[in-house]
Amino acid sequence: MVDKKEAWDKSYHEGKTPWRREQTDLSGWLEKAGVFSGSALDLGCGTGEVAKWLAQHSFWVEGIDFSEEAIKVATKSLSSNSIFVVWDLENLVEYPFKRQAYDLIIDSKTLAFIGNKEKYLSTVASKLNGVFILQTFLKHNEKPSLAVKQDDLEKIFERHFKTIRRDFYYNPTKENSTSILAEYFLVAKKAASFTPDAASAQLLDN
Q1: Residue pLDDT, tens place only, 82-115
Q2: Inter-residue contact 200 to 33 (CB < 8 Å)
Q3: Residue 55 in 3-state DSSP?
Q4: Is 69 within 8 Å of 13 (Cβ atoms)?
Q5: Where are the alpha helices (DSSP H) in 101-190?
């Protein structure tokens, strides 16, 4: 039986990766977050498109993924201000972080694959000195395993983060016309005094 890691490695090795970003422009996210430089952590970085864009726009970036094949692709265009590491994010709490804390942390559709979401997100909060951008499906009829439960997720947020912004989008495909994609912008409760540019992020009362 092929385990999850082998399956991901096989997909990357064979180039069967329809989820890869053909074009990356994170300027809208940065505007909403109010963070434009510093250190960044890309969780579930895959082949590194997000990390590479950030490295080209005033960030030092650390990308983590458990697929060796994905990291091989990412490191082909390694820059002096980026690093890519193979690590199982299920055990993020044991990861030897290269920075004490990060100004920007991004998880783009990785959370759904994490079993212990509380432990994972609490670790993220402990390493956050700025804004955590989480992009995740809340509903996905075609592949329900890609979605997380909104109520459960936001209860975890209440324990570890302060939500500064949240956006919900309908993200239809030919097979799935009712998927809902959420984007959360969060700061750690221990650093809740962090205030993004008021023009970039609207404070929400939780």
Answers
A1: 999 999 999 999 999 999 999 999 999 999 999 9
A2: yes
A3: helix
A4: yes
A5: 117-126, 150-160
Q: Residue 45 phi/psi, 5° resolution? A: -70, -15
The beta-carbon contacts of 201-204 under 8 Å, at least 24 apart in sequence, are 201/32, 201/33, 201/34, 201/164, 201/165, 202/164, 202/165, 203/164, 204/163, 204/164, 204/165, 204/166
CB contact at 8 A, 121 and 163: no
- Phi and psi at residue 31, in whole multiples of 5°? -65, -45
CA distance 116 to 177: 29
Tens of pLDDT, residue by residue over 122-150, are 999 999 999 999 999 898 877 787 789 99
Whether residue 42 contacts residue 61, with contact meaning beta carbons closer than 8 Å, is answered with yes
Question: Alpha-carbon Rg of the chain, whole angstroms?
Answer: 16
Q: Which two tokens stand for residue 5?
A: 């890691």
